[in-house]
Amino acid sequence: MQIRRTLCRVLVTAVAATAPLSLAEISAVAATPAATVHTGHTSVAASAARITHQWGRLYSLQTYRKAGWFYTADPPELHAAITKYHFTIYPTKLGYLDGNRFTGSQPLYRMKLKSRQDYLVTASRSERTKLLASHRWIYEGVLGYVWAKRAKGTTLMLRVDNGRHWRVIVHRDLARFQKAGYHIDGPLGYVLPVR
User: Fold this and answer.
1) Distance (Å, rounded) from C-alpha 1 to C-alpha 140?
2) Of 75, 79, 149, 168, which sees the most CB atoms within 10 A?
3) What is the reported pTM?
């Protein structure tokens, strides 16, 4: 199932927000038609011309009964995760994903563990293929696109694990997660940071 991408008019507000959106704000975002935003951010391989992007903030949610972690940049999916599936939004600042492929980008794939509500994000096609071949995982689609190489104004996003759960974090949070028993499971790419 391909994950639906949406970007709303309230992008400037969302970019400036330091806390996750409230349920009322999420409802307003979900009801807003998709829009296209022109940004000055360019990928390493892109020309100096402006690029059209559809950015969505990546959110981290703890699944029902703390079974695992879920990630989305899609406002309607975020709203459903909270209201229908009783996931709890985690106040972390991960970054922004693009809903469209762009020069210098790579996709992030979301996988769901069949045995419980736990999700893994990978940038590796070979890892995705290996997980599917194990018959323990379901491929849920492309979560969004990130820079494959560092670009001006971006920050590294990583996957970490503690032997039970996988988490997506940005580099500035690495020391805190390592103190909590997580180790680096690999880089995912570079994202525009949430300020």
Assistant:
1) 5
2) 75
3) 0.74
